[in-house]
């Protein structure tokens, strides 16, 4: 239900015809002997990056959904998310990458007695939370709650992408979420995952969701339209979960949502040891949008 209402980009923000033409042109260029290993068409991709920056800054109706609450997070994240949140202690830390307005965090810290937070995250002590977003979407409600909680219980960082923070700036976390945030928007998929895992304590997990992808269990409906595509060095399609499962020191669990508006993969990435290494992805196509269309090629 949430997925249907929250993923509105397909009709509005994405001109399907233009996109198909763009992909065909790219494929035609690449088939002229150069193949996927050729550098991306950088000037065109740069134009798309510039368009994408404008999308982040928009505040009107054409902007994206940035105010999902904790109950929305519970619906779109993998099954274990609410229990994992409920197990956190008061000195543990939760990082929400691409937090938008941070509504899920406000719900988590809402006064006890409100039914919603107790359904997800339990009724025990609250962990410290860090929200990061490229653009500052803090509301008055956020500012008031942060001030009343004090002691940096909830922090909001903006103006940079995840990859631009040093380990010292962010510290380590027991739990990381990403709901239609950096994982859905980044132009460097492998760097993004490696960075998130570097901030995670061993035993902790990243809970995330990726819309419009080839599903791990192959249940995608005929005619589905994809926003994130991966191919191997020989240009054969690779599923996101198959790629992630090649990451060392992790345990990956994938849930496939066939009946949502777009085939959607819910993903839990558990860090089990410290030697994390993510197989590299190179960007070969990027079309600005909310979310963008992206095509990556795995390094041999
Ligand atoms: C569609 S909004 C989702 C907001 C929120 N998670 C929600 O569901 O309401 C996308 C958010 O991801 C952020 N974002 C995108 N790429 C990011 C990155 N690489 N690092 C940090 N934030 C990023 C945007 O700035 C924005 O806050």
Q: Which strands sit side by side, in order, in the main sheet?
A: 3-2-1-4-5-9-8
Average pLDDT figure: 87
Q: Work out the helicity level.
A: 25-40%
pLDDT < 50 runs, ≥5 residues: 1-37
Shape: globular
What portion of residues belong to β-strands?
Answer: 15-25%
**C-alpha end-to-end distance:** 39 Å
Compressed to H and E, one letter per element, the order equals HHHHHHEHHEHEHEHHEEEHEEEE
The number of distinct β-strands equals 11
Bound molecules: S-adenosylmethionine
Account of the 3D structure:
This protein is α/β, with parallel strands linked by helices and 300 residues long. It contains 13 helices and 11 strands. The strands form 2 sheets. It has a 7-stranded mixed β-sheet. Mean pLDDT is 87; it is low at 1-37. The structure holds S-adenosylmethionine (SAM). Residues 56, 64-68, 97-100, 132-135, 161-162, 179-182, 185-186 line the site of S-adenosylmethionine (SAM).
Furnish the topology, listing elements before pairings.
Layout: H1 2-6, H2 9-12, H3 16-31, H4 42-57, H5 70-76, H6 81-87, E1 93-97, H7 103-108, H8 115-119, E2 128-133, H9 140-149, E3 154-158, H10 167-170, E4 173-178, H11 182-185, H12 189-198, E5 200-211, E6 228-231, E7 237-238, H13 240-244, E8 250-257, E9 264-271, E10 281-287, E11 293-298
Parallel strand pairs: 1-2, 1-4, 2-3, 4-5, 6-11
Antiparallel strand pairs: 5-9, 6-7, 8-9, 10-11
The structure holds S-adenosylmethionine.
